[in-house]
Specification:
This protein is α/β, with parallel strands linked by helices. The chain has 14 helices and 13 strands.
Amino acid sequence: MSAPLSAAVLPFLPFSRPTIDEGTIAAVGDVLRSGWISSGPRVHDFEQQLSAYFGGRPVLTFNSGTSTMEIALRVAGVGAGDEVVTTPISWPATANVILAVGATPVFADIDPAARNIDLDQLEAAITPRTRALIPVHLAGLPVDMDRLYAIAARHRLRVVEDAAQAFGSRWHGRRVGAFGDLVSFSFQANKNLTTGEGGCLVLNDAGEAALAAKYRLQGVTRSGVDGIDVDLPGGKHNMSDIMAAIGLGQFANIDAVTAHRRALARHYFARFGAGFESASGARLPLADFEHGNWHLFQIILPDRGPGTRAGFMEAMACRGIGTGFHYAPIHLFSLYRARGYAEGMFPVAERVGRLTVTLPMFHAMTFDDVERVVAAVESILIHARVPR
């Protein structure tokens, strides 16, 4: 086992950091100088390239991944009186958008290995009021898409894939987003492809795309040269050309980014070694290099009582290494406790939510950075060294 490297002689290593190249910075400058900084030609180009990437399916861009999911639910016809089954381990947006359209979130526990929604429990949660399913591809690892869509077909349900973290992921060789129902991606700052904020929605046909476009911009329908009409209560969810210019620069490198993240993940597993879990009591993620894009590299800490995660994260910070956690269980937030959820309802999600830690993973990382992280983790969990 390696001794911890001294944080005093090394720069702080965050758990995530975007990489924006000089060409992309110059492209943003070109947009600013053009005078057209809202939705315009760069947004159109970005959407066209994304559509080609997803096999020609219609793609619209938005100002956030939250907007994409809310509008996907509206396109799917989900509303008051409906239920939507989802996972409690995600960013709150995944459940909040269900409330936003007037429907009721119904949670199902997660699989302890993949940490995605347990599909057996998902199916058990379906009732006559269920209208849609929102699975989350946590950390970029897709759910079992074959089983998911078999369940959806059996119960005649729509699917809104929360693929916020899964750009570049695949399912048996097919890109996530190139098949399925409605697929939502986020381009927030720490994603594998970022536009600063933003997201995109992959739809099934031109009719759905036209409806989503109306929801995206105030319900406006253009008629004639200078006339408009409004026939539904849309919002203001469009992406700007500034954001799209960043996205185009990021998109040009997405295959290399995904390949490097996979290489970093392989190095994590190699450096932790086969004996890490038994020696530390921690659990590594599934070593799935066929499907995942390795958006996050997460470990589950051994449960050493109250303050386990906070103490570990503080000890890592003392070694100059940033960490995060993704995510706290949604059903234990006040908003959802008030709707009848309580501790003990989803024990796997609650344990994972209490003990998960996200280790550094971003495009600019090197193998030496990985070794530094592993040495720090081992020094805390195995050697029990007190941070100085």
